[in-house]
Amino acid sequence: MKRALTLFLSVLMFLTVIPFVSAASPSFSDVPRNHWAYKEITEMAEKGIIKGYDNRTFRPNNEVTRAEFAKIMIAAAGVDIDKGSVSQTFKDVPKSHWAYYYVEYAKPYLTGYKSGSTYTYKPDQPAVREDIAVALVRLLGYDRKYKADLNQLKKFRDADDISPALRSYIAISIQTDLMKGSNNYFRPQDPITRAEAASLLYRALLNRDGDETKVVFPNPNPNPEQPKPQLISISDSFSDSNLKNWDTKNADGDWGVINKQVTAVSTDDDLDHYFLPLIWDESVNPENYELTVDVNAVGTNGLGGLFFNGKDGKANVVYVSKERVYLGKVADVEDDDIDVIASSSYKLKSSNRLKVIVKGSTVSIYMNDQYLFGQQQVKQVGTKLGLYLQGDATKDAPRKMTYLDNFSFKEVK
CA separation (Å) from 314 to 78, 161, 253, 308? Predict the structure, then answer.
């Protein structure tokens, strides 16, 4: 640990506003013995961790900018920069900025700003005390090791000045003695000077030799975001008569497109239910999804809608009739009986927007975007789903037919 932390300290000192050059003595003309950080600055100089300027000064009151701080964090974490795999995050740190790659790679340790959907870094502003507190806590992994005690903040009169998103980090920095306040003030928004940095880092790191343990610095992206799986979303307005989204080979009934709507007929008098399965990756098997379709009745009693939970020729069906909407189960396409699970009154219109929302074992039915009824304990056992018509929906074709249009299937969270 000592070797890694020494690197951090030396980098911090070497990457501030003006590069250091060696000095013959660890004593600095602008850091007298009565300077509040004399001990820390002198001891680190004696260890060779920091060096002064060629005029034997330390410049203890110089501030460290946020851009310089980003470079410090990259060196401290030992990150190898791959310039080919970086995209711009911050509006005010474009690729032409000298600190662009440092800022992008140091994001796991740094603070930033967000306004709407825009991120800024404010690279030329000074790094402040709450910034370095967050950086140290994250660099040392204390945010994973300790639970923040927010009561620690109550001892400071300026606790309200701590940025809300950083409060837990500040609490941990206080709990672990990484940071301290003075006179009941934490001064979270005060710029970090070189003297404060020397004192802070000495107290936080070098003065803990007795607690030395071997550590591994966090990966620049310790918990990389895994690509979020794309939610399923399939729709069809039936402008393509080939029905390429549908498994017509395994359909029950003969399905086709007429005037950009789909319907089905059959010459098999024994066939009472027509199913048109959707082609989709059934292995995904989402627990929550939504099905919608327009049921357009032309001189019929409707008798069309959707099926889901299909397996081995069986499926749950939701269909519109002249005076009701039904949720039921079809066990045999050649048996006109339907095991009705639930239903609700509804007056059939010429066009009826049917929506079925499945969440686990709960099914909710909507008509024309208005909730109609629901049913629990509908166990999901199958993955086949798609369009449904009863044989009677088209028995008087072509004069009287039920058509289906504007189908959609989408996974919901």
Answer: 60, 63, 15, 9
Chain center to CA of 33: 52
Cα-atom radius of gyration of the chain, to the nearest Å?
Answer: 34
Give per-residue pLDDT as tens, 185-196. 999 999 988 777
Average confidence (pLDDT) over 37-56: 75
Beta-carbon contacts of residue 134 (< 8 Å; ≥ 6 apart): 109, 110, 111, 166, 169, 170, 173
Helices (H), 56-187: 66-77, 100-105, 129-139, 142-145, 167-175
The pLDDT-based confidence of 107 (bands split at 50, 70, 90) is: confident
Report how far Cα 404 is from the mean position of its chain's Cα atoms. 37
> What are the two backbone dihedrals, phi and then psi, of residue 94, each rounded to the nearest 5 degrees?
-75, 175
Residue type, 98: W
Phi and psi at residue 322, in whole multiples of 5°?
-65, -35
Q: Is the peptide bond before 123 cis (omega within 30 degrees of 0)?
A: no
Residue 56, judged by CB atoms within 10 A of its CB (0-12, 13-18, 19+), counts as middle
pLDDT in tens, 125-173: 998 999 988 888 887 788 888 999 999 999 999 999 999 989 999 999 9
Calpha distance 347→42 (Å, rounded):
88
Helix (H, G, I), strand (E, B) or coil at 387: strand
Say what percent of the chain tops pLDDT 70.
82
State the Cα–Cα distance between residues 366 and 164, nearest whole angstrom: 42
Model pTM? 0.48
State residue 77's pLDDT score: 60
| Under 8 Å between Cβ of 360 and 288 | yes
> What is the Cα–Cα distance from 116 to 56, expressed in whole angstroms?
48
Q: Are strands 288-298 and 351-359 parallel, antiparallel or unpaired?
A: antiparallel
